[in-house]
Amino acid sequence: MRRRARPRSARSVAAMADYQAWINSYEWKVTRRHQWADEETGRGRALVCHGCGQDWLVDADDLHHVTYERLRHEEHEDLMALCRPCHDYVHLVLRRPGARAVGRINTQRAALAVLQRYTNGKEIE
Core-most of 16, 60, 67, 81, by most CB within 10 Å? Predict the structure, then answer.
């Protein structure tokens, strides 16, 4: 038997609308993503997916929000480079029934644990 979705609060609906507006903005799609990539390479790090280690392409792949606390004003560590398949997998797992418990632990650790399992135990940062 399927569970009924809980009605969303007005605050939750507004937060989702703000998130969608930001993710669909030119500032996010181009400026912030390129800025993040420049910061990453400036720190001497390669642009790779944190899940599978494949090359991460700034205009084709995703930046995963580790936290939404500073939405629109993200710090470098608030974001994680993921290829589309790894990003989709993380969200698939986090949407599973019972995944709400993940919210009580560090989201970045949870995402990395999910990816480590997905990539067959390959060591990831």
Answer: 81
Structure tokens at 30: 């181009």
Per the CB < 8 A criterion, the answer to whether 10 and 62 are in contact is no
Residues 6+ apart with CB under 8 A from 95: none
Q: What is the widest separation between alpha-carbon atoms in the chain?
A: 51
Cα–Cα distance for residue pair 64/87, rounded to 1 Å: 7
Q: Are 33 and 63 in contact (CB under 8 A)?
A: yes
Q: What is the full per-residue pLDDT of the chain (125 aa) written as tens digits?
A: 555 556 678 887 888 898 899 989 999 988 899 999 999 999 999 999 988 889 999 999 999 888 888 889 999 998 999 999 988 888 887 777 665 555 545 566 666 777 777 666 554 44
